Amino acid sequence: MKNKIFLKIFAVVGICIGGAFKGIAQYQSVIKVKANINPGAASANPANFKATSNIILGTKILYFTADNGTNGTELWKTNGTSAGTVMVADISNVGAASSNPLSLEQGPGINTVYFSASDGTNGRELWKSDGTAAGTVMVKNITADDQSSAPKELTYCNGVVFFTADDKVVGRELWKTNGTSGGTVLVEDIFVSVNPNQSNPYPYGLTNVNDTLYFSAQAHVGFNDDRWLYKSDGTAAGTYGITTNCSSQQYLPLNITKVGNDIFMRNQATDLFCSGEIIGSELLIKKPADSKVSVVKDIFTGTGSSNIDSLTDVNATCFFSATNATSGRELWKSDGTEAGTVIVKNIETGNASSSPQWLTNVSGTLFFTAQNTASGRELWKSDGTTGGTVLVKDILTGAAGSDPTDLTNVDGILYFVANDGINGKELWKSDGTAAGTMLVWDIMPDTSSSNPQNLTSFDGELYFSADDGINGRELWKTKTCAAITTLAGNGITNTQSVANQYFYDPERYVNLIARLVPQNANPINGQTTAKVWVDAVQTPDFVKRHYQIIPLADTNTATAKTTLYFTQQNFDDFNAVNQLKLPTNSVDAAGKANVRIGKYAGTSNDNSGNLNSYTGLASVINPVDGDIVWANSRWEVSFTNTGFGGFILQTKPTALVYSYTFTGNGNWSNAANWANNMVPPASLPAAAIIYINPVAGGQCYLDVPYSASSGVSIIIQPGKNFIIPASLQIQ
Q1: Per residue in 374-402, is it b (16+ CB within 10 Å) or e — as a string?
Q2: Residue 524 CB-half CA count within 13 A
């Protein structure tokens, strides 16, 4: 049944199917962008996402690569709709052979993407596309034959695309293109070798810093091979290396990162002689006003290396991970000065390491992952102070850790992939609070993992690839959906993972049944069934909309914060037959104070959901008035409960007794004359009540003998007729 439900949901493209609420007016869901790029269970494997936009025209295109099972891996595009998700061109054009586009980058032209690809004839060369088949062309065959120049590291900077390529003449060097064949040229032959067979250590780390290109490259001057930080304005004369203020110049810059207007990096070389001593791999900086690269600080003093990594700009401060002898590998920050380069927090005390990873700036707050003995690897955040560097949420409680990865900022919301030990590796989101850190959707049910990959921000949503276990790895995105205001109808049941929290009508996707949020030391988890009934007749006992919630595991001991939903009409119908009233409007505080939830352990033995059909213990929950909320044109009643079964809403402060109400006209034995077709059985427990309340002008006619046990009450409503020709015994 579970797999059937998910098949129904995911076969519909673009439908909001549930997920993490963003607020009263909207919530976050996930949808498959196109039903199946690669039909059946095979995977399209979408990858290499690159967003392009044109500010003047207001157009946006997300390019990516995918395999539809027929044309191989080719260039695709999407505008976020199923119809707008199409293959751009079959570049290889040889059956299922693939052109395998790589290194996608926006460049000159309207929504034009540049990339390397192999058409099966000219080797791997530089291509571009404007999103049409006709506009997808090879820019230049740099090697002029079937060899491959294999363009790499395409980087848009100051109106041109820089890249590295190997023309088989000067080796791999720095090139640029303006989108034309004539404008695709070698910038500079940086490594000039006296030996034509000598390997060329090519440029890498191409980085746009304020419309100037910086990169790491190695020059060959005589017998000295020095790899420096280089800069280029696109001309040979304007392409040159930058020395350090140290005695030795073989500093091999890595991790070139723009922070504010400065350039931070680390030296790969571990024998840089500077300030009278040899230092290891440490933090370097190039400031705009300085002609040379400087060492910021020898973090791991002496010849040891701090091995700087994950340099990240947050409000013009450089955050990174680094190692020293006393604190292990921890989170550091730098303002570019020695004094301002400090450890932020020793998360794993002593010289053990928390090893920060996935450093990501989200609206001025640094998010990252770190590990400690107590929590394992989990999600953390920092404002740059020791006190403000905190664990966001222990997603997988205990030392194992949920191992968050792929941290991605989408318009101020952090998305990432994590494993909570219940739902496998799935998509999560966080606003920086524990309450706001939640699973977006369990795409592959239970403990299996959909393994979201290639998380990419585009047009205010997150795009990614995932495997739902049915259709292989396909293209997905988040979707901001209008809040659900409609409620599920009578008899609707949904069985799904509780990790998704919101239970809906599985046929209509949008009609709510209930919400379950795991709580406390033994939280509800795994597959859970939620059902709603809406009785045809309102009785004096409880609201005619009532529920049953049964988790597959720990039915009597699991804990959750449960939310049940009601309409104002549900409350009005109840109030019409009761003196103790429920809220009559959204600000009725007195009515809120009367709300009680009756809980009946077990399952309904006749599938009616009425309290008479439960044989387990009954108890009453008094919800906090602040958790009784009018929102989205409905009542939301929330409460924390341990143990599950049937749930009813009442106003009496004690558990209700078994009750039956005669509402028709005629014979006692006719089920149609009783509310919800429930005729009193031959045996009733003490304190049960039988209400005699025929329709106006009608009567209840006892046409069969009936014996009421001691303690059972028969209440004849004022002005009503009860005819007793048959035997009635009250013991």
Answers
A1: ebbbbbbbbebeeeebebbbbbbbeeebb
A2: 29
Element (H, E) at 1: none
The confidence score (pLDDT) of residue 675 equals 85
Number of Cβ within 10 Å of residue 363's Cβ equals 12
Tokens of 260: 């504010």
Q: What is the mean pLDDT of residues 89-99?
A: 88
| Least confident stretch, 98-107, 165-174, 249-258 | 249-258
Give the residues across from 574 on adjacent strands: none
DSSP SS3 for 472: coil
Does residue 731 carry a pLDDT above 90?
no
Per-residue DSSP letters for 44-63? ---EEEEEEEETTTTEEEEE
Distance CA 7, CA 686 (A): 48
* 352 contacts 400 by C-beta, under 8 angstroms: no
Mean pLDDT (whole number) for 686-694: 84
Q: Dig out the tokens for 119 from the structure.
A: 């058409």
User: Exposed, middle or buried: residue 74 (CB in 10 Å: 0-12, 13-18, 19+)?
Assistant: buried
Grade residue 134 by pLDDT with cuts at 50, 70 and 90.
very high
Question: Is 669:679 a contact under the CB 8 Å cutoff?
Answer: yes
Interval 426-467: pLDDT, tens:
999 999 999 889 888 888 877 889 999 999 999 999 999 999
Strand pairing category for 317-324 and 328-334: antiparallel
- Rounded to 5 degrees, φ, ψ at 441 are -165, 140
Euclidean distance between CA atoms 234 and 651, whole angstroms: 78
Cα-based distances in Å from 314 to 129, 318, 366, 378, 380: 34, 7, 7, 21, 15
Q: Compute CA distances 647 → 442, 490, 498, 537, 626, whole Å.
A: 26, 15, 17, 18, 20
CA angle 327, 329, 331 (to 5 degrees): 95
